[in-house]
Amino acid sequence: MPYESWESQLTHTSPEGIRIRGYDLTELIGGLSYPATLFLLYTGELPTVSESRLIDALMVASIDHGPATPSALAARGSISGGGTLQAAGAAGLLTMGRHHGAAVEACMGVLQKVADGESAETVIEEITARGERVPGFGHRQHKERDPRVDRLFELAANEDFETPHIDAATAVEATLLARTGKPVPINIDGAMAAVLGDIGVPAEFSNAIFITARLGGVLRHAIEEQGMPPMRRIGPDDHTYTGPEPRPLHEEEER
Amino acid sequence: MPYESWESQLTHTSPEGIRIRGYDLTELIGGLSYPATLFLLYTGELPTVSESRLIDALMVASIDHGPATPSALAARGSISGGGTLQAAGAAGLLTMGRHHGAAVEACMGVLQKVADGESAETVIEEITARGERVPGFGHRQHKERDPRVDRLFELAANEDFETPHIDAATAVEATLLARTGKPVPINIDGAMAAVLGDIGVPAEFSNAIFITARLGGVLRHAIEEQGMPPMRRIGPDDHTYTGPEPRPLHEEEER
Amino acid sequence: MPYESWESQLTHTSPEGIRIRGYDLTELIGGLSYPATLFLLYTGELPTVSESRLIDALMVASIDHGPATPSALAARGSISGGGTLQAAGAAGLLTMGRHHGAAVEACMGVLQKVADGESAETVIEEITARGERVPGFGHRQHKERDPRVDRLFELAANEDFETPHIDAATAVEATLLARTGKPVPINIDGAMAAVLGDIGVPAEFSNAIFITARLGGVLRHAIEEQGMPPMRRIGPDDHTYTGPEPRPLHEEEER
Amino acid sequence: MPYESWESQLTHTSPEGIRIRGYDLTELIGGLSYPATLFLLYTGELPTVSESRLIDALMVASIDHGPATPSALAARGSISGGGTLQAAGAAGLLTMGRHHGAAVEACMGVLQKVADGESAETVIEEITARGERVPGFGHRQHKERDPRVDRLFELAANEDFETPHIDAATAVEATLLARTGKPVPINIDGAMAAVLGDIGVPAEFSNAIFITARLGGVLRHAIEEQGMPPMRRIGPDDHTYTGPEPRPLHEEEER
After folding, report:
1. pTM for this structure?
2. Could you tell me if D6 lies within 8 Å of chain B, comparing CB atoms?
3. Which among D3, D83, D237 has CB closest to B1?
4. How confident is the model at residue B19 (pLDDT cuts 50, 70, 90)?
5. Are A240 and B6 spatial neighbours (Cβ–Cβ below 8 Å)?
6. Cα torsion for D137, D140, D142, D148, to the nearest 10°?
7. What local confidence, expressed as pLDDT, does residue C254 receive?
8. Does the pLDDT value for residue C1 go beyond 80?
9. Which positions in chain C touch D35 (Cβ < 8 Å)?
């Protein structure tokens, strides 16, 4: 039966080779970093040095947030019942929604409005009038300040581009504090939205970058769970960290 | 109700900060690449420069293989029915099994046996006697040679470590050719198994690295599908590549 | 660490027994049908005989629609790559969205408005003005008439309750035909919405009933795929039905 | 591009109608129960009255086991993070493995050996020598006796067929008790395996019946969670049942 032909602009494969957005994959392997290649696959063009550094930093910031996140717990639950690693990873993805890890795109919409000239006050008012929270702000644990956010904004400030979306995020944060009298700080989704907005990555790609980066962490929790008794009652906050003590990252130890 | 306390050695979070394997995440952000941070999270220690380069290269090699893979098609099918991006990603992961993207760990077992001194002939015989295929060898499209493999082995050869697992993979490939008279080349799963074996990454982590890297690609296909008509009949081979023409990766354009 | 206590009104289990909505599960086993038990679990109360018959009929109507649905194809893709049965089922669920199998709840909202007195014309206008399709109407294959729908409405007419939602569905269908000049018939999601509305099942439960019933079909396709070659190119419309010839259901052969 | 034609023996759809295993779906709707239709779709033939009753009873027995099962918790976690109902259902399925809900097929293999004449002692010895548990026996909560099991076996005894697999299950249970001095009772997976074995349903279909039946329960937990605060810490044993008090199932209230 004939099918309608359909078009894809991403990757061309043939017995002769594989090209991503026109570039030979064998040149990209060893020639471009994974975060930069992801940028290429998503946007269609190679990142600048600044863009490449920031995408990489965003992915590192998103890699894991410990055993008590819904995604890590779901992955552990899957392993605990006898699931495969892939099943555990999928179960983890399926906990990601507007409350966990998938608020980046929605937050970009909010920041864009402020960057385009609406006042933070007006934009917040619209959202709260619908009984919703402002996406990208507030965190269960980091109630005052999310340490990942300051670091990302500091890195962005070191690069050579305008920061209207970071400025918008800061304005929204200040307005939220003024309205409620208590901090509702920018969270990792919000920081990702601000930085991606400033480097021009379209909003529709933003959740995907977080989800990919976080899957790396989720699968590691699944593998740790493989060494634990099946069907155990997993108290989400009853874990004790027994890994290495705090240690500094010396430049000379790195890549 | 009291729960049993359980231990995790991966990531410690508190209102004060986030530490991955003892390192402050704010130091890792901008201080270590995503692939190197993944290596740290998985193995517990920072990679050497060589290890970091190779993990990065393996992830780039795994990022995508076009629209006709089971994982990209499943993700498109999910979007086509009205699924979310996360659902599409999960559907993609769920197509990964021993036939697609999750043969790395099994292949590492095979290569380890050969690296430990068993003959490739004996190891292959054991597998085929069970009516199974040798994991990590053979590809639907790259019947003669998978271009990703040669590039990865070339990069590994440029670094300063022993290559018993790459040698084992080459021996298995030669033996398969001798036995059947036709090439059953090392595929991307096999190359990943060989390189990870040589840099000492435990087999149990190997599928996770492929799965994470490939999710980036799968989600991009899902996003492309979001622009297409819902409920279309997706002929898996009826796509035409309409992206950029072949183009060289000039060093100066990169990061 | 103490957790907040949370409440559940569904099922109580203890070493002594299992009670669903207060009823001893050992009395339900053999004492109530699965569809009626599902009704009990969802709504909190036993169905009447009429309600029980109709829930059962809706589940039968939803069980399968052949190999070309997105959900059956995704399940086959999962098996084809080496996934487990559970993974295949999950992949199938993840294709269900507003275009496939999860439009029941949205359709109930539409029918409720008409049943409450708005004209079908007004309600349709609102939806199409947003550039959307009316949920629960139209089918890729059953362009004139979905045979499942007539049968379900006939069964409902034989029972002793009012049918304002079925009437609303019929009105919407007639209005769509009048507006466009071509039939946009009630589909299975729409019929389920109409019947559930008339028996008073809340809209929030409606998608779940379809999804549960359809999973039975999806998993059967997955099992059939287990006997096929892995990694085959699955042309969605290239299947031939090779099962039993048409045959009548004689009353005497049934339960 | 041409695809290989492939065969399916399950369901034929056309603009004219839908036939499941040759039967017109419009005759099945209202003419056959959902469990009986599932039997038909799976095995290819209509069930007898006895088979139909027992499949129905097995599905009722499997529908739910309260909020603390891995599948219900995973579904709640998905909703808690912002997932859709379908995502929650899929996350639930992905916790099902050999430790939870997917041991029916493996147990059927064990029971078949005993039914075929091997001693329970020998069969158990083989399994425990591999360091594994006997699938289908033992339950976290029902340590002495699973009440669902006795009821299912009682129902089976009322029907008119031989019970070699139920007898095998009873023999394995007695042998486990004799070996260890403490009860390792038949669980719901084991009971399903025994009953399905006796009514001649092939082992490869057995997990699917449990999974389908349980999805109904899992989705109900997901819907209950929709009314709770997002991102709450879900202590798996901190729930209190606040539903209806114990009440009898009077025959007159039923269908």
Report:
1. 0.91
2. no
3. D237
4. very high
5. yes
6. -60
7. 46
8. no
9. 33-34
Least Cα distance to D186 among D156, D154, D143, D157 occurs for D143
Tokens linked to C142? 């059953």
Q: In what helix (H) or strand (E) does residue B23 lie, and over which residues does it extend? A: strand B23-24
Q: Does C86 touch chain A (CB under 8 A)?
A: yes
Number of CB pairs, chain A paired with chain D, less than 8 A apart: 113
B140-151 tens-digit pLDDT: 777 778 889 999
Token pair recorded at residue B167: 């040698």
Q: Are B84 and D87 in contact (CB under 8 A)?
A: yes
CA atoms within 13 A on the CB side of C207: 25
Count the Cβ atoms, other than its own, within 10 Å of residue A212. 26
- Which B residues 13-42 touch A at CB under 8 Å? 13-38, 41-42
Measure D119 CA to nearest chain C CA, in Å. 31
The answer to whether the Cβ–Cβ distance between D1 and B238 falls below 8 Å is yes
Bridge pairing between strands D239-241 and C239-241: unpaired
Tokens of C134: 């009316």
Residue among D223, D235, D229, D239 nearest D81 (CA): D229
Closest chain C residue to the Cα of A82, Cα to Cα? C86
Contacts of C10 in chain D (CB under 8 A): 64, 66-67, 217, 220-221, 224, 243
The residue of chain B nearest to residue C79, with distances taken between CA atoms, is B95
**Phi, psi dihedrals of residue D6, rounded to the nearest 5°:** -130, 160
Chain B window 216-255: which residues touch C at a Cβ cutoff of 8 Å? 230-231, 233-237
In terms of Cα–Cα distance, which of C106, C116, C109, C128 is closest to C175? C128
Please state the ipTM of this predicted complex: 0.94
CB pair distance less than 8 Å for D14 and C141: yes
d(CA C82, CA C88): 10
H-type helices in chain A, by residue range? Answer: 25-28, 34-43, 49-62, 70-81, 85-93, 104-115, 120-129, 147-158, 164-180, 188-198, 206-225
The conformational region for residue A180 under phi > 0 = left, psi -120 to 50 = alpha, else beta, is alpha
Question: How far are the Cα atoms of C17, C151, D135, D144, D168 from residue D182, in angstroms, in the given order?
Answer: 20, 54, 17, 8, 19
Query: Smallest Cβ distance to D100: which of A81, A94, A234?
Result: A81
CA C38 from chain centre, in angstroms, equals 13
Neighboring chain B residues of A56 at a CB cutoff of 8 Å: 33-34
What are the per-10-residue average pLDDT scores of chain D (255 residues)? Answer: 87 93 97 98 96 97 94 94 93 88 89 96 95 89 84 94 95 94 92 95 93 98 95 90 93 48
